[in-house]
Amino acid sequence: MRFELFVAARYLRARRRQAVIGVITAISVIGVAAGVAALIIALAITNGMRRDLQSRLLGSTAHVDLMRVSGDGIRDWRSLVQRMRQQPHVTAVAPGLYGQVLISRGPRSGGALIKGVVPADEKTVSDLLNHVQKGSADAFSSDATSALPPVVIGSDLAETLGAAVNDSVLVTSPQGELTPLGLQPRYARYRVVGIFHSGFYQYDSSYAFMRLADAQRLFSEPDLVSVLSFKVDDLYQAAAIGRQLEAAAGPGYQTTNWMDQNRELFRALKLEQVVTFIVIGLIVCVAALNILIALTMLVMEKTRDIAVLMSFGVRPDQVRRIFLLQGLLISATGTVIGLVIGYGVSWAGSHYRFIPLSEAVYSIDYLPFAPRVIDAVIVSVVSLLTALVATLYPSNSAAKILPAEALRYE
Questions:
Q1: CB-based burial of residue 383 (10 Å sphere; 0-12 exposed, 13-18 middle, 19+ buried)?
Q2: TM segments (predicted)?
Q3: Of 196, 227, 251, which residue is a domain's last?
C-alpha cells in the first residue's frame, strides 16, 4: 500500500479526540450513499418510463403511416399496398379505416375510435389484437356469418360500457345519411367477441376494432381506406423511410411516423430526467460540504501529527495526497453503498412491480424500473469528482503547515 493511502486509511479508523469529526464523517458517508442511491433509483424510473412507453407505443402503433394530403381517403388502396410491399426497408403493410363513433350499451355509453382492419395484415403492424385477454379475435379472421358482426374493444372502454364478451353494443356514427326528416346518424349493432388490454390507457379506453368491410358499411365509404400502416426494419430511421414511401406513392401523399407523433412526450421525459439528476444531485453536493467540514476539522486536529511527518521528510505534495485520498475514500465508501442500495431497490421494483400507478394519469399501470450500467458510471464519476473538489481546500491547507510553527510550543 502506498504511504499516503496507508495514512489516509489510518486517519479514518483512528479514534479522535473530537467525536464531532467522526460524526460528521459518518454523516458524509450516509449523505453520499443517499444521494447516489436516490440518483440511481430516479434514473431507473425515468429510463423505465421511457422504455415502457416506447415499447407499448411501438407495439400499439405502426412505425410509419401513409395517407392522402387532402384527407379524403385512399381509393386505389389494393394496388398501392402491393406496390408499397416491394419498397426497401418495409416489412409489413396494413390498410385501415378510422372513424370516431359513440358506443353504447343500455344507458351507458362512451366515445371510441373505430379502426376497420384486415385482421391478418393488422397483426403484422400492431400488437393490440394479440393482447385480447377475454374472448378471442379469431372471429375477425373467420368468414362465417352471424346475426351481428364482431367488434373488439379495449378493457377500460368495456368497463365504461359494462360490456362483456358476447354482449351486443350499439355503434353510432356521426357520418349520417340524409332522410326526409333530415340528417340522421348511422348506427348498427355489433357483438363483442374480444376485449384487449395493452396496459396503455390511451388505447384501452378509446380503441375498438372491426373488420374493414364492416367499417366501410358503417361509414358509407365503399372500398376506401384512410391510412396505410407500415412496419419498417429500422424504427429509428422511420422519418427517412417515410420520405422514401411518400416518393414511391406519388404526389398527394404524406407520411407521419411514431417519433413525430410522440415527440413532445419523449422530450418531456428527457427534460424530466435532466431535472431529476440536477435536483437529486444536490444531495451529493450537501454530502461534499460535509466532507469539506470533516477534513478541515481533521487538519486542525492533526496539525501536530502533520508537522511531525513533515519533519521526518514527508513532502507537502504527499501531505496533500493524504487528505485528497481520505476524501475520496469517504466518497467511494458512500458511492458503493449507494450503488448497492439503488440497484437493489430498482431490481426489486422491476421484479415485483410493487408500486401501482393510475393508468388514467400515467398511461401505464405500474411504476417501471430500468437501471442501466452507464447510469452507475456517470453517478459514480460525478460523486467522486464532487468529493475531489471538496477536498482541495483542506488538503492544500494541510500541505502549507510549517513544522517549526506547529511544534513551537509543544
A1: buried
A2: 20-45, 274-300, 321-349, 369-393
A3: 251
**Residue-wise pLDDT tens digits, 31-61:** 889 989 999 998 898 888 888 878 877 778 8
- Of these ranges, 3-12, 128-137, 163-172, 269-278, the one predicted with the greatest mean pLDDT is 163-172
3-state secondary structure of 372: coil
For the chain, the first-to-last Cα distance in angstroms comes to 31
The pLDDT of 215-226, averaged and rounded, is 87
Grid look-up 505534495 returns: 317
In whole angstroms, give the CA distance from residue 354 to residue 348. Answer: 8
Greater confidence, 265 or 164? Answer: 164
Q: For CA atoms 318, 324, 325, 327, give the dihedral sign.
A: positive
What mean pLDDT is predicted for residues 3-7?
77
Count of domains for the chain: 2
Structural domain for 197, as ranges: 71-251
Question: What's at 185, amino acid-wise?
Answer: P
> pTM for the complete prediction?
0.72
CA–CA separation, 288 vs 295, rounded Å?
11
Q: How many CB atoms lie within 10 A of CB 234?
A: 11
With CA atoms as reference, report the closest residue to 75 among 223, 248, 254, 246. Answer: 223
| Residues linked to residue 191 through DSSP beta bridges, in sequence order | 150, 168
